[in-house]
Design goal:
With about 55 residues, the protein is an alpha+beta fold. It contains 3 helices and 2 strands. About 55% of the residues lie in helices and about 20% in strands. It is globular, with a radius of gyration of 13 Å.
Amino acid sequence: MTVPRSTLSNRWRILREAGVIAVRTSGKTRLVTLRKTEVDARLPHLLDAVLAEVR
């Protein structure tokens, strides 16, 4: 599935502003990381449940 760049930018912005992800720039590349500690503090066990379903 192809998603327009504007849609992706908007989704990344929403996640960043919500504190779910952190973004840092390295040259021309943007590195996105999950802020697991913050997500676990707000929604305990959510990530564990999601990841358990994936496995």
